[in-house]
Design a protein that fits this description.
Blueprint lengths: L10 H5 L7 H13 L12 E4 L4 E3 H9 L3 H5 L12 E3 L3 E2 L23 E2 L13 E4 L5 E3 H7 L16 E3 L4 H20 L3 H10 L5 H7 L11
Bound molecules: zinc ion (ZN).
The site of zinc ion has 7 residues, from loops.
GO biological process, one term: DNA replication termination
Pfam families: Rtf2
Protein name: Replication termination factor 2
Length: 231
């Protein structure tokens, strides 16, 4: 019951447990998902990004993929939802102080150790080793355990203070059901963007664009600007 009631499991509780043979495949899958780039299969290293479906990548691998679309054929449709670098979010990950894998001479093998993760939840300290659900916020890229997000119940990011909505929360390496939900939300978002039904995004675009300074717009269309709403 320890995991449900909000208590933080101790390290030995996480590490030990029945070691069964059939678990090996599952463990290998977890190690792959949480430690290796979905695209290049190389070990994840900063800058690390995640897509809207919650998969992890090295940013340089995504950039290479976008530059050379022909590689998409070889990889099937696994990453066809990434059309632009804007479709991925650079993650702000919290280092695990107990991680030693990057120190000294490492030739890959140590990364296969499920018992110690490179990153942790900055709020409750859970290790990001595939055994706990983790999420990131699309608005800022900060990464938390799902437990922390549920416990805090805030509308601003615990780490950087950015405001977020439920739509911004993306489960990392989630279940099939999670991915289906995320896919639905992604398609909805893209549809909205296409139809221009997101007035906030438009406003930001106009204000932030260096090519269209507000002064030019004002000079060109002075009569059409609403008088009342400019506060
Ligand atoms: Zn944040």
């Amino acid at each position: 019951m320890g995991c449900d009631g909000g208590t933080i499991p101790k390290r030995h509780e996480l590490v030990k447990g029945p070691k069964k043979v059939e678990k090996v495949d599952k463990d290998a899958e977890l190690v792959a998902q949480w430690n290796y780039c979905t695209l290049s299969q190389e070990i994840l290293r900063r800058p690390i990004v995640a897509c809207e479906l919650g998969r992890l990548y090295n940013k340089d691998a995504v950039i290479e993929f976008l530059l050379d679309k022909s590689s998409e054929k070889a990889l099937g449709k696994a990453t066809s939802h990434i059309k632009s670098i804007k479709n991925v979010t650079e993650l702000r990950l919290s280092d695990n102080p107990a991680w030693e894998g990057d120190k000294g001479n490492t030739k890959g093998d140590k990364h296969d150790d499920l018992q110690r993760a490179r990153f942790i939840c900055p709020v409750v300290g859970l290790e990001m080793n595939g055994r706990h659900r983790f999420c990131f916020l699309r608005c800022c890229g900060c990464v938390f355990s799902e437990r922390a997000l549920k416990e805090i119940k805030a509308e601003v990011c615990h780490t950087c203070g950015a405001a977020f909505q439920e739509d911004d929360v993306i489960v990392l390496n989630g279940t099939k059901e999670d991915v289906e939900t995320l896919k639905g939300r992604m398609e909805e978002r893209r549809q909205k963007a296409k139809l221009g039904k997101n007035p906030q995004a438009h406003q930001k675009l106009r204000q932030g664009s260096p090519k269209k300074p507000a002064s030019i717009l004002e000079r060109r269309k002075p009569a059409q600007l609403p008088k009342v709403q400019r506060q």
